[in-house]
Hints:
alpha/beta, 9 strands, globular
Amino acid sequence: MRHLINIEDLATDEIENLIKVAKDIMKNPEVYSEKCKYKKLATLFFEPSTRTRLSFESAMMELGGNVLGFSEASSSSTAKGESVSDTIRTVGCYSDIIAMRHPKEGAPLVASIKSTVPVINAGDGGHNHPTQTLTDLLTIACEKKRLDNLTIGVCGDLKFGRTVHSLITAMSRYKNIKFVLISPEELKIPEYVKEDVLEKNNMEYIETNDIEEHIDKLDILYMTRVQRERFFNEEDYIRLKDYYILNKDKLIKAKKDLCIMHPLPRVNEIATEVDDDPRACYFKQVRYGKYIRMALILNLLEIR
């Protein structure tokens, strides 16, 4: 039995196979419509989510399976003091696979140790969000037709952004990947990401606070929101939340085939006027997320 807690749990060939299956699901959805018949997915979301939770639920339903679970901690026995370990062992009696989001880093790992069914980490605090990373990789593979030889700009909250940390880790496996790390001083990428991933893998990167200076060099621009829930100080959040706003003017110098991505939800960091730009891929990204999660569910349940 396997779990997915960190994107590093998957070998490169496994990721490529998931992408291959996801693409096949897109082309031949009817072939997969009953693959998970009689199977149940439990969605245990101790932290609010719209896209990730509904994406998992939609994925399981399109595979012919069923869904149960809760969307906030107050709806579970956690509110009564039940431990994560007890919750996971209980839910494992009712389901075949579990997708879990938790505000505490490491909680899904603890859950996987105790679980009797596969556990998928659907986000743990500022730590990991591996299925978002798989979504990002499928988006890049479909939109850019490659996963190597890319210059990727990541912009916004690079300190707390788990999607950014996971994406950098995943892309470290591929050749000739360059990163432009765009953030205010207070939200710079953590030193451990630079040392353990970028520098360890001899990846080229630059740090800057100016998005327009480098936008003409980018193949991908990955925008992120400043996350209110990660801040201890409301004043700091208010001061930084609108630091970067991508609009049409900032895109004048960008490449014609730039791929603009965002893990969503969006607040103010991408102006709505950008939505109709053919380079805007963030709503396509949502759709890709459903297909890669379908492929992952099949993989962990060992359904061919």
